[in-house]
Fold:
Amino acid sequence: MSFTGKVAIVTGAGQGIGLEICRRLARAGSNVILNDLDEKLATEAVKNIKNEKGVCVAVAGDSSDLSIIRELVDTAVSKFGALDIAIANAGITLYGDFFDYKAASFFEVMKVNLGGSFFLAQAATNQMKKQATGGSILFTSSVTGHQAHKNLAAYGMSKAALEMLAKNLVIELSPFKINVNTIAPGATLTDRTVSEPGYESTWSRITPMGKPASVEDIANAALFLVSDGAKHITGQTLIIDGGWTSVSPSPY
Structure:
């Protein structure tokens, strides 16, 4: 898949899945605007991509902040002249028992996972409409939007909502040759999850393919859905979970 000359925004990309998506896009020729809440992570990620001869610019800040969203789009246009791809990957997970889940936690999850994704898509597609050359939007959902997980009611709710958002936006975006899709990763080995005791062994045991996903597995799917080869795919969710949602054993 070639992305030569394409301009892409990826949020929540200082590490893990988002970083790997940025690395792969840059390696394939895209000009990447990388966002992360943690400025140090964002700066280090951009440095590493540049060391691999990729073109990448950091915009640190809260991906649900409208001013940061505007800065992301403005940076794409001012530095590279256009915007072709926007990947709303940023999200937060705040665990908690449903019976005493705090309002502050609920609204924070919705602000980042839903608000940040919704308004990035809005700002990005308004720019794409001006260009009249089409584009691609991608949301990051989760298998928790398909199967129940203990203590993740709010998070699962937010991820299921993203998949409905992608379906609804088909109506709005198709006339402008903009496709919109969602990936739903399952258990994935990242810097964060590999440090959790028993994570890899547990998910290897209950995943039909015998192991959790790698960040490369998730990035492969993401790049396909924002590539020119997927232009007739829109409103869809691609689950990348090694078959876990087909059988759904609990990790608890």
User: Anything to note?
Assistant: The chain has a mean pLDDT of 97. Residues 76 and 83 are 6 Å apart (CA to CA). The chain has eight helices and nine strands. Helices lie at 16-27, 39-51, 66-80, 103-131, 153-173, 199-206, 215-225, 244-247.
